[in-house]
Amino acid sequence: MTDNHKHLRHIAGVLRCTQAIALVVACVAGGALWSEASGFQDADRWVEHSHEVLEALNDTRVDILRAGVWVRSLSIQPSDHAREQVRRACDQAAAESVRLQELTLDNPAQQARAKAIVEEVGKTANWIRAAADTGEASGRKALTRLLQTYMESDSTRPLPAELDAMQAEEQRLLRERFDRQGRHLVELKRVAVLTALGLACFLAWSLTYSSRLTRRGHRQIARLAAVSSEDPLTGLLNRRALLLGVDSLREGMSYAVVAFDLDDFKPVNDEHGHGAGDEVLRAVAARLREQCRDQDLLARIGGDEFVAVLPGVCEQRLADIIVTRIRLALGEPIAIEGGEVRIGASLGVAIRGLDGMEFTELLKQADERSYIAKRRAKGLPEIERKHDDAAPAGRAASKPRLTLVG
After folding, report:
1. Sign of the CA dihedral 149, 154, 159, 164?
2. CB 92 within 8 A of CB 59
């Protein structure tokens, strides 16, 4: 497996691991939050329940006291309104005591107290109604004597005692439930804060590590782009990159195409080895860069075959000056291990707008002119080559001419 594949698999593994960890953290945190929220909700419901019980206790106590007040009013000044208020207060006290009993079904101890309260409220309410009826039938003096007798007896004490006992227990339960509610609230906040901090730390680490992987990926992509666009030996453009570079030139822009291969290069490989040949090719690339501009497209498209595209060069005179300068630079001695060698180059040039418009056509013409210049330098007749696959006499048929395939 290549390093690039390993890097991509590593990135994919990190993403899957990050997503799995985030999912686990979210599930655990969500479960903890749900549990604490449920506990807080239950505690809040029980606190509300205690308030309802205390409210029912207070209403029972108030209604019984109100009934007693109204029955005493009857002993002072009898009236139908007072008798109606006595009956209404007694009925409300009985209803509240029954409600109190229903509210305490979950608590056996409080349920027992509520049952006793219902009985005492019933007794007290019945006595107050009977006293009101006696006052209405026998007059104020009879009602006053009855009230005095009742107040002096112990029958008035059980109800307040039961109400006080039940209220004390419910207040204790309220404090306990309120404390539980507070603990759940604290735990809920703690879990929320820890979850937020954990997720923040995890996301910070994830972002940092992802950024590191991204930078490494960009470097890998840049290296791949360089490998895919550069000739590995000379660092010049390869065929594909040359075509892309020409396509990227501004539409309608003039440029010159220079094509050449090296003279007497095969003897260098034969006599000094391919290592020396590689040194020569690197030296040729370096000299070609020195004689051209940064915006020029320089490519090695074959063994010893080179192409230069010179944007903005639209005159034959200027193109000839550049070609001469390159030829002279390439003709200088090249140092290799164990000595130096001399090579030459026969260059051909074609200009867009003068010799054609399409790059492939211009490259073909530049190649033909390079071939003619090579034959002229060797003193051979100048025969123009008509087809790429028909090498003329005097040129090795096995050596292909410059061709570009998209």
Report:
1. positive
2. yes
Q: Which amino acid is at 315?
A: E
Q: Which two tokens stand for residue 311?
A: 């944007």
Q: What's the rounded Cα separation, in Å, for the pair 19 and 27?
A: 12
In the block, tokens 């207060």 appear at 89
* Whole-angstrom distance, CA of residue 53 vs CA of residue 82: 29
User: What is the b/e burial string over 344-371, where b = at least 16 CB atoms within 10 angstroms of the residue's CB?
Assistant: ebbbbbbbbeebbeebeebbbbbbbbbb
The distance of Cα 394 from the centroid of its chain, to the nearest Å, equals: 67
258: enclosing H helix or E strand: strand 255-263
Helices within 139-265 (DSSP H only) = 140-152, 158-229, 239-247
Residue that has been written with the tokens 């007694």 in this structure:
90
Q: What angle do CA 127, 128, 133 make, to 5 degrees?
A: 95
**Separation of alpha carbons 60 and 117, rounded Å:** 9
> Mind listing the pLDDT tens digit of every residue in the chain (406 residues)?
455 566 667 667 777 787 788 778 778 878 877 887 888 888 888 889 889 999 999 999 899 888 888 888 877 777 888 888 988 999 999 999 999 889 988 889 989 998 999 998 888 888 888 888 877 777 767 777 767 666 655 555 688 888 898 899 989 988 988 898 888 888 888 888 888 888 788 788 877 877 787 787 777 776 666 567 889 899 999 999 999 999 999 888 999 999 999 988 888 888 888 889 999 999 999 999 999 999 999 999 988 999 999 999 999 999 999 999 999 999 999 998 878 899 989 899 999 989 989 999 999 999 999 999 888 887 777 665 554 443 333 343 334 444 443 3
3-state SS, residue 298: strand
CA 389/CA 122 separation, integer angstroms: 123
d(CA 2, CA 270): 35
Where are the alpha helices (H) located in 77-155, listed in sequence order?
A: 80-103, 108-138, 140-152
Q: How far apart, in whole angstroms, are the C-alpha atoms of residue 308 and residue 289? A: 10
Check if the beta carbon of residue 240 is closer than 8 Å to that of residue 229.
yes
Instruction: Give dist(CA 19, CA 15) in Å, integer.
Output: 6
